[in-house]
Amino acid sequence: MQKQVADARAALEGLRSGMTLMLGGFGLCGIPENCITALAESDINALTCISNNAGVDDFGLGLLLHSRQIRKMIASYVGENAEFERQMLDGSLEVDLIPQGSLAERCRAGGAGIPAFFTPAGYGTEVGEGKEVRSFDGKPHILEHALTADFALVKAWRGDTDGNLIYKGTARNFNPVMAMAGRITVAEVEELVPAGTLDPNMIHTPGVFVQRIFQGSRYEKRIEQRTTRPHAR
After folding, report:
1. What are the DSSP calls for 168-210, one per residue?
2. φ/ψ (deg, to 5) at 163
3. What Pfam family is a match, any one (predicted)?
4. pLDDT confidence bin for 20, thresholds 50/70/90
């Protein structure tokens, strides 16, 4: 199977308005910058986006919010995006907030073919309203269903033409679990190498989960919040 494509536009072929997307990343770390830019330059809209967060006002998924291309966000944390707040409050953006661990496990379960699982996270809160409750070892748990997507867009440090991926440091975050849960998984990488080049023991996402891969360019890798140690006096 030929997986290598030229660029983000080619990788997103077949992605249409109204589809559900998973997008790797945590804050602005490890986000698929090239794919998001290509989407922002398209006329695709009414998207349901599953991501840990919605980027910031002028970067990441914030670009798609400004262009009103997202209909619904399924996320864990959204506190750094004023545009997200405006759309949520005026009712133009549907929002499903999920505890971070539950979000990760719902993605992982979707990739592993597990339809649902019980977790104590969210019981007794709005998160648990209307969900089945069972008791395990005397502790109540709520039923959470797995998440899958039409397209999963992930970012890796290195990849090969067979689709095997290696992530670097904290940019690993949500990318591996989302790579497993997309019907079509698109991987953009900083360095694309020939098949068989990567050490099998270092691979985080096996190529069987990846349908399209390309080498990205012009990565900004913005830092969302920079904290530095004060200089010694």
Report:
1. -GGGGTTHHHHHHHEEEEEEEEEEEE-TT-S-GGG-SB-GGG-
2. 95, 5
3. CoA_trans
4. very high
How many CA atoms are closer than 13 Å to the CA of 109, on its beta-carbon side? 17
Question: What is the rounded CA–CA span in Å between residue 123 and residue 129?
Answer: 8
Pairing state between β 149-160 and 165-166: antiparallel
The conformation of residue 107, written as its DSSP 8-state character, comes to H
Q: What is the pLDDT of residues 92-149, one digit of tens each?
A: 999 999 999 999 999 999 999 999 999 999 999 999 999 999 999 999 999 999 999 9
Give me the architecture of the 8-115+148-215 domain, per CATH. Answer: 3-Layer(aba) Sandwich (3.40)
Report pLDDT for 70: 97
For the chain, give every domain's residue range: 8-115+148-215
Alpha helices in the chain (DSSP H): 8-11, 33-40, 62-66, 82-90, 100-112, 175-181
